[in-house]
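In this section we walk through a basic example: taking a raw amino acid sequence and producing a predicted 3D structure, encoded as discrete structure tokens. The instruction is simple. Fold the sequence below.
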Amino acid sequence: MDGERGTLREVTLEDIRPIGIGAGILGTGGGGNPYLGGLHLASVIREKGPQAIIDPFDLADEALCCVIGSIGAPTVSIEKLPEGTEMMRAIRLLEAHIGRRFDAIAIAEIGGANSMQPLIGGLQAGIPTVDSDSMGRAFPEIQMSSFLFDTSATAAPLAMVDAADNAAVVPAAVSDVWAEKIARNIAVSMGARAGLAGTIMTGAQVKSAGVHYTLSLARGLGARVIEAQAQKSDVPPVVAAALDGQVIFRGKIADVERRTTKGFARGGIRLDSFNNCDRLEIEFQNEFLIGRLNGETVATTPDLICIVTEEEGEPVTTEALRYGTRVAVVTAPAPPQLKSEAALQVVGPVAFGYNAPFRPLPGGVIGLRPVLG
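The resulting token sequence is shown next.
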């Protein structure tokens, strides 16, 4: 960690827990289980040492980068463990397809375990990871990426592998939406969990389109949570303050409806306030997408809806939702890259079928150079 600027230069064993907490919160319920991802990353760091992290603006314009992460349903990730080298094998498969090596790895989404997959794959492949992702949160589909909104980059070609010896290359797709459809069907055939490498970019494209310093933000957010826990502070307001957001609800989970279908975890939850006077309903597709308080919409995608445990402030992911859990709900402003007119067509409420206008939350820190400790 660079003490003056608060940005990571490498990821060590000591960084794993705070990154897992912070990325779990930023993941808005998705991105895979951060605890399991942390165990995997720890084993690789013990074997190979820390992973090097590149400031996005230190990338050469002509550097070649790709995005990697897991594709599938988060509910499957806690039942079907990885083989362990899926990310590295997907990288090598894509390199073989294009005929050259990558200079750096970018993060598909900072959410949950998917914040750690580019560290794991980068370490195994001997390639550094860029402190930049394409969402500043998590989203369920490949085309929902700032790297694809306003650049010439495309999701395909892409490479996918599973825990066995199954592998596939998609050399081209007529659109990024079709790349998602093809990849999703392959992922379902692979048991709703696969490693994916794609969205090939230059360093210049990463610098112009990425949501920067989100790995450092995750680490700093997690560190604040750990410090607040040690001091026995009220943790949810600490989370909200770190993300320039607010705590909109405290209560317990009263009902969970969840199903795994077409490679996604879909459903909704109902939360009742502790005094039983208010009710919050949240719908999700891997990630929490829309929240209605007493029937009124209070937050929608792409702004973040984050659920944390009421006492510890630990992230609650969609696969871990349980009846009776005491939680707090934090909303936070999305990075500006997700709020342009073009981006809202892909990640706004309409893109998910909701007849609700997007009313952006004020402020925001995601994508800025962090000052967190």
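Looking at the output, two observations stand out. The chain has two domains: 10-212, 235-352. The longest strand covers residues 246-261. In the next section we compare this with other chains.
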